[in-house]
Write a structure and sequence with these properties.
The protein has about 270 residues and is mainly beta. The chain has 2 domains: about 1-175, Lipocalin, CATH 2.40.128.120; about 185-270, Immunoglobulins (Immunoglobulin-like), CATH 2.60.40.10. The protein contains 3 helices and 18 strands. The chain has an 8-stranded antiparallel barrel with strand order 3-4-5-6-7-9-10-11. The chain has a 4-stranded antiparallel sheet with strand order 15-14-17-18, with no helix packed on it. The radius of gyration is 18 Å and the shape is globular.
């Protein structure tokens, strides 16, 4: 939840979410794309949503946070519920798409909520990573948040969820070996700038070796928006332009998918309007 003020809005507009990272200690084993493709993600997920302070150096508040997901192949729909310590809450619709080993999601409509005067509930959006933690299946990640109109950024935070009933994945998870190979996204460094953007964003990445590359953009319903590049590229740094005026995505939230040889990378970008 976020107080609305002109000073606050001016501050958050200057912050670029993609340039921020938080190191978190975890014993959970990250899962790769092949492993995620074998999982059943239907059902309830429960955990915490930790909201950043304005300077992003600590957490201002921790909320109870839940997903109720429905999976149809790579397409995810469902609802989310966020509850504050004093009992304020919001039930929201969400949608998302699985790309590689990540769930890209966004909340987009409030079904029911208690909103104290002078505050709003922000829609959360971002990419969550799958991990095996013992017998549990987890979804975690740094996720941004945006106001209900115009996609103006809120303070953002960290999401940490565990599948409530994971019995349908127990045998599958047990077969996953520890130390499974996960693509090293840091070698590619795919990112959009500025992010959030107004009309145009530049998508940048680097290749450590010559490779076959494909870069496409999807909306949050998994529909192809445009193909930005397909072909062979030499090792080095690259920049591709995405002009949102040429396309229509109802949410203003896009996912960039990049396939390098057989490895899949992805990043989310948000249009303010």
């Amino acid at each position: 939840m976020t107080h609305i003020s002109s000073v606050f809005l001016a501050c958050i507009m200057l912050f670029v979410f993609n340039n921020f990272s938080v190191a978190q200690e975890s014993t959970a084993q990250p899962l790769n794309a092949a492993q995620v493709s074998k999982l059943d993600l239907n059902g309830k997920w429960s955990g915490k949503r930790m909201q950043y302070t304005a300077d992003k150096k600590s957490f201002a508040e921790t909320f109870q946070y839940e997903f109720d997901l429905k999976q149809d192949g790579d397409i995810i729909t469902g609802t989310s519920t966020i509850i504050s310590a004093n009992g304020d809450f919001a039930d929201m619709k969400l949608e998302g798409v699985l790309i590689g080993n990540k769930l890209h999601f966004r909340e987009y409509e409030i079904n029911n909520a208690i909103r104290p005067e002078g505050k709003i509930w922000c829609f959360k959006s971002g990419e969550l990573n799958f991990a095996k933690d013992g017998d549990n299946l987890k979804l975690t990640g740094i996720t941004a948040s945006y106001m209900e109109i115009y996609n103006y950024p809120c303070s953002g935070g960290v999401t940490d969820l565990t599948k409530v009933d994971n019995s349908n994945n127990a045998t599958t998870l047990a077969a996953f070996t520890t130390g499974a190979t996960v693509t090293e996204e840091s070698k590619i460094n795919i990112a959009a700038y500025p992010n959030p953007f107004i009309d145009r964003a530049d998508i940048t990445y680097n290749l450590v070796a010559d490779a076959k590359v494909k870069v496409v953009v999807y909306d949050m319903q998994g529909k192809l928006v445009t193909s930005l590049y397909e072909g062979n590229q030499n090792a080095g740094s690259y920049k591709l332009g995405f002009d949102a005026k040429n396309f229509t995505a109802g949410s203003g939230i896009y996912v960039v998918e990049m396939i390098v040889n057989n490895d899949v990378y992805s990043s989310q970008m948000v249009q303010m309007r």
